[in-house]
Amino acid sequence: MTIQIISLLIALLAVLVGPFITFYVTKKNLAFQFRSLVKEHWVNKLEDAAHSFLNSTSEWMNKYPVISDGSWQVENPNKEIDKMLDTINSSIIKLQLLLDTNKNSQGVILDKVAAMAAIIHSKVYDENSINTLRKNHNDVIDSLQEIFHKERTKMADTFR
After folding, report:
1. Domains of the chain: which residue ranges?
2. What is the DSSP letter of 125?
3. Which residue in 65, 77, 84, 101 could disulfide with 107, CB within 3.0 to 4.6 Å?
4. Class of domain 39-158
């Protein structure tokens, strides 16, 4: 008789507690998956914004001197320069929205980006500004590579 009562109590406990445990585990699993997807989406967006910024600043470093001195013939040099500046500004805004200034490595990137933007907007293209642009460009690439490696390693470790 006591075995039947114990069996009945265990079954009753399983029926009452089982759904709560299932709900809790499912909720935690969905929250984990959501955080993982958000992180992966952030990394992809940052990669796109960084690519746009680095590509547009490279284009600026290569095209601006030959457009401004007239050695590269374009129909409307000012329109071409404005188009390059618009692309650079747009990519800077995307980076500012994606990066967190409170995180040291991300703040350093934004500082380098701001320094590059200041040089580009001043439209001064002497040896010093060229060297500073190239150095900051390379520093941004290095810092972004560290962030991408760290974030992708975290995501890979999460699923192990």
Report:
1. 39-158
2. -
3. 101
4. mainly alpha
